[in-house]
Amino acid sequence: MLEGKVALVTGGGRGIGRAISLGLAKEGVFVVVNYNGSEEKARETVEAIRSAGGGAEVFGCNVADFNACGEMMKELIEKYGHIDILVNNAGITRDGLMAKMSEEDFDEVIAINLKGCFNTMRHLYRQFLKQRSGKVINISSVTGIMGNPGQANYCASKAGIIGLTKSMARELGSRGITVNAVAPGLIETEMTEKLPDSVKEAMKEQIILRRPGKPEDVAGAVVFLASEKADYITGQVISVDGGMAV
Ligand code: NAP
Questions:
Q1: Into how many domains does the chain fold?
Q2: Which CATH number characterizes residue 147's domain?
Q3: Which sequence positions are flagged as catalytic?
Q4: Helix, strand, coil share of the chain (percent; to 5)
Q5: Which of 50, 124, 149, 158 is the most buried (most CB within 10 A)?
Q6: Cα of 15 to ligand 1 centre, how many Å?
Q7: Is 191 a member of any domain?
Q8: What is the pLDDT of residues 2-23, one digit of tens each?
Q9: Apex 244 CA angle, 45 and 120, nearest 5
Q10: Cα 11 to ligand 1 centroid, rounded to whole Å
């Protein structure tokens, strides 16, 4: 059990983030469910946690906004005194072949997926040092390892997360803080719903287990990394992809 711990899950109101929020709450963690556009869904997730006997609250903040992330951390630290687990889950896709990809689509994906992780970690850094404890779990992707045609912006952001994770693990390890990444494969959420069937079928062909994963599959790995069972694991990228990137 992770009773008494406080977690911030970015984009924690829907999709994989929702499963992570529910999974952590089930272990006794108080979960701050961050959202940007989907306040209703974040509130529903908080309700689901509370009706199961857990503790949670919503917090609206665009993770791409450096100053807004600073304000969010300041407020949360003032309120709870500590943040023990940070899950950088927020992410978007703006797919297209490089020949047609706009500068805006490249920049927006990097700003949310990659810089969003920097923004939250940068504003928690000092607090983690003070606590001499903390667990960061960054959600990367199998595509950050393998690459994917039509997703140069997304894959670059997810590969960047791996570099960020390893660097932060090296910087913070001596202070008892672990930083890991989880790299999901094809997981059934709104994000993958919009992929063309032909693309999904081609992806399934590459999956050893021959089926897509569920948000709960990813949540399981995140909850493990957030627990004391993973105290000696840092700087790692755990694939939850049915064997896609083997
Ligand atoms: P999703 O269903 O589209 O959910 C995306 C989440 O990110 C939402 O909660 C959304 O919240 C949040 N978000 C987006 N922009 C944000 C911003 N600027 N600030 C704060 N939150 C923001 O996608 P998903 O499949 O659950 O993906 C979750 C994570 O897993 C992403 O990082 C994604 O890249 C990664 N991933 C997914 C798969 C997959 O197959 N599904 C595979 C590999 C990796 P709002 O709606 O409130 O903006």
A1: 1
A2: 3.40.50.720
A3: 154
A4: 50, 15, 30
A5: 158
A6: 7
A7: yes
A8: 999 999 999 999 999 999 999 9
A9: 40
A10: 6
